[in-house]
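WARN  no MSA supplied for this record, continuing single-sequence
INFO  ligand: fe (ii) ion
INFO  echoing inputs
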Amino acid sequence: MLLNEYIDKAKFSFLNKYKLRKVTSNIEPLLIKKISDITSNKERIFDKLFNKHGFFIYCLDNAIDFSDSSKRHVSLKIIKALSNESIQLTKVSYPYEKEQEFFDGTTKIKNSQKIDSKAMTSQYMEYHQDGLGNGGEIDVIVLHCDSSSSFGGQNGLVDGIKLFKHLYDVYGEKTNCLFEPDAITIIRRGSRKSLKTVGPVFYTNYDGKPSINFKYPDEKHDVFYSKSCEKIIPSISKWIKTDSNHIKFLLRDNYGIIINNREILHCRYPFLEKFEKQRLLSRSWYTTGNKIDSYGYYPGLFIGDSLMNLLHEEHDLKKVDGYYRYDRQTNRNIKITKVWK
Ligand SMILES: [Fe+2]
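INFO  complex generated
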């Protein structure tokens, strides 16, 4: 397939997806009193998550009792109840999970000095997707709030499908450059976890699902765009920052959000906490495909087979395979055998 043919097809799938989108003014959570509240709402939840909004919010009833002999976090049980034959949500483990003070199958997001990650601070986190280096295969993120902050700590969401529609309305065929294989280059700096990814901003995966690949530069990441994309990028930022295009909400205690990471960008506002009430979110990642089975460190994206041959060589592995590290001197990712910790 020629690149232009691919782009036309990919644009079509974004525009088709846009038709399913709904205006989100009501983000009332589903109150879950018992596990059957989830099973009886599966279709509604999946419709919101994969079609209408790209996310879904729930709220656990205080009296809910999910206890059993395992020490699994309640949010994992919700996802387990959601999985069915047609949509399997397979958990992707994060390396730090098991090194936490207590392990319940989730990663604890809290203001901590121990881990060198912006997520583990109380600072503003710019709009982003999770799982850079996992081939774009973190499909679903669950953020469950065990304890909210005293002030701030809201999350924001931006819809990548609506973003594309806006750009297409304004720029028409000029948006083609955003589907090209070298549209965006993201370099994560650092000695151990450095990685360079080069890919499209908008693409379709091997199942033809519209997917976005976007990140703002921050203290750990450099972001560059191809020459032809440079003119459009300021419009992306402007659109994202316009109040009416993002949703801002606070996860209260026992609230959780399930986000479609392929289509939705999320951010976090800064927060303050008092000693006796620390903000604590439990996060877990899921894939709906079979391309990854554990957290990876891979420079490519799983773009549909027909396009792979046209793309950067690092997109063509069949499965996330090992870990890579970016070498600044040669400007290449080098496969490493030793897993970083
Ligand atoms: Fe995140």
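Residues 3-336 form a domain with the Double-stranded beta-helix fold (CATH 3.60.130.10).
INFO  checksum written, moving to next record
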